[in-house]
Amino acid sequence: MINFNFFVLPFTLGLIYVFLAVGKSWYRWIAALPAIDKVKLTNGLKHPGKIAAALREIFLESLIHRKMWKQNPLLGYMHMSFALGWFLLIILGNIESRYYSGTHLNAPYYPIFLKFFIHDKLVLFFEVYSVPFLFRFFMDFLLIFILSGLVLAFLKRKQSKWFGMKKTTSHHFTDRVAITTLWLIFPMRLLAESYTAGYYGNGGGFMTQPLGNFLVSLTPLPSDFVAYTMWWCYSLVLGIFFVMLPYSRYMHIPTEILLIFFRHCGIQPKKWYSSFSETEVQSCSRCGVCLDDCPMIAAGIQDSQAVYFISGVRDRYVPEEISQKCLVCGRCQEVCPVGISTDSLRLIKRREITSGQASDFRYLTNGHSGKGDVVYFSGCMTHLTPTIILAMKGILTRAGIDFIHLDADGSVCCGRPLMIAGKDRQANELIEFNKTLIRQTQARMLVTSCPICYRVFREEYNLPIRIQHHSQFLLNLIKTGKIPLQGHFSKVAYHDPCDLGRGTKTYEAPRELIGKVADLVNVREEREKAHCCGGSLGMFEASNSQRNLMTKAALDILVENQPETIATSCPLCKKTLGRHASMAVKDIAELVYEAIPRE
Amino acid sequence: MKDFGFTVQLDHSIDYDAKDKRMMRYVLYHEPSLDWCIGCGSCTATCSAGQFTLFNIRMAHTLLRRGETEKLKQELKKCMFCGKCQLTCPRGVNLRNVLLRINRAIELFG
Amino acid sequence: MGNRWVAPKRLLFSNSIKMDPQVIIIGAGIAGLTAAGALAEKGHHVLILEKEAQPGGHVAQWDRLFPSRRPGSEVLDHIRKIMDGRVEIKPGIRINGIIAHDQDFTVLTEEGTSYTGQALLIASGFRLFQAERKEEYGYGIYDNVITSAEVETVFKQGKKLLTSKGTLPQRVALIHCVGSRDEKVGNLYCSKVCCVTGVKQAIEIKEQLPQCEVFSFYMDMRMYDRHFEELYFEAQKQWGVQFIRGRLSECSEAPDQSLIIKTEDTLTGRPLRMIVDLVILLVGFVPEPETGKLVEMLGLSTGEDGFILPSDEHYNDNLTTVPGVFLAGAVKGPATISNTIADARAAALQIDSWLKTKP
What we know:
The structure holds three protein chains of three kinds. By secondary structure, chain A is mainly alpha-helical. Chain A has helices spanning 8-31, 35-45, 48-64, 66-71, 73-101, 109-112, 114-117, 131-158, 173-200, 208-218, 223-244, 252-264, 275-283, 289-292, 306-314, 320-324, 331-335, 342-354, 386-398, 416-419, 424-440, 451-460, 470-479, 501-504, 508-517, 544-558, 571-580, 588-595; strands spanning 374-377, 403-405, 445-448, 466-469, 489-494, 518-521, 565-568, 584-587. Chain A has three domains: 48-248, no CATH class; 374-476, Rossmann fold; 480-595, Rossmann fold, CATH 3.40.50. In chain A, the strands form two sheets. Chain A has a four-stranded parallel sheet, with helices on both faces. A four-stranded parallel sheet of chain A has the order 6-5-7-8, with helices on both faces. Chain C has eight helices and 18 strands. Chain C has helices at residues 10-13, 30-41, 72-83, 148-156, 194-208, 228-237, 289-298, 337-357, and strands spanning 23-26, 46-49, 87-90, 95-101, 104-109, 114-117, 119-122, 126-128, 145-147, 171-178, 213-218, 242-245, 248-253, 259-265, 270-276, 278-283, 285-287, 325-327.
């Protein structure tokens, strides 16, 4: 028995095309990996644990869409119904077709168009628990599941607010073709199956059969002709969708799978655009979750968020100001359902723009420092918030620590401000200079008051000594009883600085520290979801008024629970928030210092 | 050559009309806030690089405006980009972008 | 209700103020007092509500005035002489609400009393910029950083200007534009009086401590009014006050509590560091927060600077968009004492004619 009809051709050719196109892309990306990453990949693929973890993530993120559920349940359901529903439909369809054909070697189109070929089995009322009935029941159920997601997707275009989204992304031409054909696939399947079931009077499930009977009774044309036309349409939209897939945002589906494998094998973002970057870019589904969570929205900036930036990278054209119009606060990275390293992609682009710019730091020659047990590096910005320096020096002296204030007379910048502009090469000169200075102190520990410095000290300095932000250091001093505490503040709200929080995942130490000297009030969006204060050094293209709007938006959230004081642990955040706050904005070092009884 | 008993010195004044102002126009187009500068010098006073070298961001801006690009190129390399200037500017000039854009202008027209 | 005051002139001769006043003035600074005197002279019944315990506003705290260097108390005494006995002042008043009805205004206080008048003059002035907000200048952190207002207090008490340790300062730095012309504290405007106050105080310091070096750090010297430039010239010629063009960026404390200030000497194009014994911050004007409540109660509008907008900045400078509500003095933005007095008289004239044309 050869089950063939010409209408299966569009689908089959499309399927072959999409397999070849995706396979070619996968091959290209894997082939372009640096040798070290290739080794990581082959080693990872020999490791069952890693494969299992990758498959688990694929199941949870690509099918269930767990992160989407966390964002908004309706959005999660919508994505899950499409992904999981279609996946299960393919699986169940395959089993069903094997049942009917009695062989494992079916043509790829056979399960898809099964109802066209198989329609002659009557299910009688006493056979309701029979295998054909159950197949029909579950296949219809899955179709409804997907169609419900389709209805939601349609509504999302109209009413994105229901999905917790203020903004929804705009699309390219190929995307429009792809989305149209994608949205047509399942209605076409429904019509084709229903008409066929109606024409034959059997073969449908609890939905397709009654619907088919009803449709046939309405249609004046011969219903076998209509059914056949519908099968053609079904096959055509599938075929067109498959052909468009590699050129549309739906390429994210096969790419994400590869990306998850890459990540589980330990492949990491590079400083320059690599094949890993390309998989990340292609994995972006342009779902637009990053739009809503971007602090720039508060300032009315809507053209440079991760989703648009990545689209630009994909299309090989990113205007300079789009690259530079970003706080690099990392908030989008936390909510991205695919886990794309948006900040590192942004910095790659910035490096391409600015790395060629000349710098000359030869004037940094006579670096010399004293010696001490602990080296305190206050940071450039902290010189504009002298209360922090005063508090830190007061506490260090009180705790009897042998410390040296490395930048008492002003800092040589830590290098991160250059790096965030893409000037890593230039930053390295400053890093080397500071490293020499720090080594000369022979200290066992480096403490800094600035999260910007702290992050770059940890990530780029490779110092053989311990590095702590002052929140961690002060907490340790209190825990070991080195400083007495007496005073207590009431109602303090803590603002997570981007570089300390999302940058180095230091969320607990500052909170625990505040807990020792004050009552910490909750902030609605904190930790990973904390807003940038608006002062970020990562931003180049925002005007002052735009920055002010971002600051106000961050403050509005901080003051929701009526704190008496806002605490932060970054001089830049302190200064930025202090400009607009109606209550005191203090660094946690100040809180601790004020809580120490005066001698 | 006959010795007249005096030498002719080059004119040291800025010949404003003869200067190339493309760089200035480029920077001002991309960062209009530079026009807000009142030359107070807070930026230079607080400058991290300025404490080690003669780098003067306020002066760099003036050089840009006068089309003195050769000097500007040498000066700008010394900036550490730390952002203190921007944090003190009483007019809210977006100075880090100014610096980035001058660098870009040097690449384009330098 | 409008006919309640058939013969207001009687009031001139009767000292009893039992009946409702015609004009309620909010604020007993020089603007409020001057307007009250002028209105009383015209025969109107005036009540002043003042939030502080004593009338006189900022001038009462000031020692000598620029450019003449006459005592502030002289001016204040003169103003009070005109109105004394004819105007009632209620001190310690906190306004809770204002009800506008039928062209009358009822002012409710926190104490529960209410006052009704037919015209309202807002003369609630300004507040001095809180120098702590400029953290990098070190006010409230270092003992030897003080404000121009504190200098006046020292002078008014007839004391010597000393460092926190009680020694005579050998070098003093006056910092212009603190809290003014500064986007970073949200005040873009010029406070107008600080430049000349700085020059005046520089001279006064030299008068008191001839051996002390006095430096003035400025962005622009705004000597716009009569005799201002002459005062500036005097400071240079007679007193040797030194002017450095550069805005202060940072101030830090040396172990001996002297201060290290960082600025750019913009005329040499080099960063400049200087050790001084005393830093005096010339603090500017900011809108009085209490006035903000009045603005809300009456539905007035403010400019981006936070000061109240008159209905027309050129020819209706004392009128607001609400009929019967008038403005005088520094509620409209920074102003000198002479300007405030002139403005208050103009407001009184406007109120007088408005009350006369009222049905």
